[in-house]
């Protein structure tokens, strides 16, 4: 679901009206928060010096204490995916277990799964900046799109409710529609959940849809031209 969450977050800014942008940028609370953030940034460790083992384990430990059930679900999803470790939070759980900061059967299962399938790509002593640079490199033969490029597909599907209708409206193939929606929810989920009112992100999608619709009617152009 990471792509869907990222898309919805980005869409909130893209679809904001000029009035909303002005109100946001001039909100005293927002300004205060940025000032606080600026002060906190000054206290952050040097990412060229601190290792991923030290840095991400702190993050995971805090997340575990505040949202344990979500953490367990995230770990389960990762194990089912069979992917190598690229998520910082997953890496953090592994390190937190190694450091005896978290002891739980699901985290132990995560560690065993990772070790058994040799999914840890870089040493835990790798600095954070080096890790980010290494893990973000993409093979030349596998270009990827930012999730926001699937906004029109998601919004049109949410409106029309069928793959065929979405493809016809956007002038793309049904295969492309399925690929876009699958990339948003992940291969382990049926993209039909995107229009299921019980889906936990349904309200967020609906909110984005109404903003998207107003933006389209006002501008009469495609929001994201790259299909």
Summarize this structure briefly.
With 227 residues, the chain is mainly alpha-helical. It is built from 12 helices and no strands.
Mean pLDDT: 81
Measured between the Cα atoms of the first and last residue, the distance is 20 Å
Describe the main β-sheet briefly. Answer: none
Determine the oligomeric state from the structure: single chain
- The overall strand count is 0
What does this molecule look like?
Helices cover 64% and strands 0% of the residues. The chain is mainly α. Helix 4 (52-66) packs across helix 5 (68-81), helix 4 (52-66) packs across helix 6 and helix 9 packs across helix 10. The radius of gyration is 20 Å and the shape is globular. The two termini are 20 Å apart.
Task: Fill in the keyword field for this structure.
227 residues; mainly alpha
Secondary-structure blueprint of this entry?
Blueprint (H helix, E strand, L loop, with lengths): L1 H13 L3 H8 L2 H16 L8 H15 L1 H14 L6 H11 L6 H12 L11 H8 L15 H10 L2 H8 L3 H12 L16 H18 L8
């Amino acid at each position: 679901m990471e792509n869907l969450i990222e898309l919805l977050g980005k869409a909130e800014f893209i679809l904001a009206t000029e009035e909303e942008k002005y109100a946001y940028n001039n909100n005293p609370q927002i300004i205060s928060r940025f000032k606080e953030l600026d002060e906190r940034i000054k206290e952050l460790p040097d990412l060229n010096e601190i290792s991923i083992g030290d840095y991400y384990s702190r993050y995971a430990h805090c997340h575990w204490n505040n949202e344990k059930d979500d953490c367990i679900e995230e770990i389960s999803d990762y194990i089912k995916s069979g992917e190598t470790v690229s998520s910082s939070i997953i890496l953090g759980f592994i390190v937190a277990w190694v450091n005896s900061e978290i002891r739980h059967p699901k985290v132990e299962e995560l560690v065993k799964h990772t070790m058994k399938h040799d999914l840890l790509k870089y040493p835990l002593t790798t600095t954070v900046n080096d890790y980010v640079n290494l893990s973000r490199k993409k093979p030349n033969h596998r270009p990827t799109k930012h999730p926001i490029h699937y906004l029109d597909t998601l919004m049109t599907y949410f409106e029309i409710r069928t793959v065929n209708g979405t493809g016809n409206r956007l002038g793309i193939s049904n295969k492309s529609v399925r690929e876009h929606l699958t990339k948003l929810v992940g291969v382990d989920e049926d993209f039909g959940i995107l229009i299921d009112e019980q889906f936990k992100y349904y309200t967020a999608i609906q909110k984005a849809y109404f903003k998207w619709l107003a933006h389209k009617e006002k501008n009469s152009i495609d929001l994201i031209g790259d299909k």
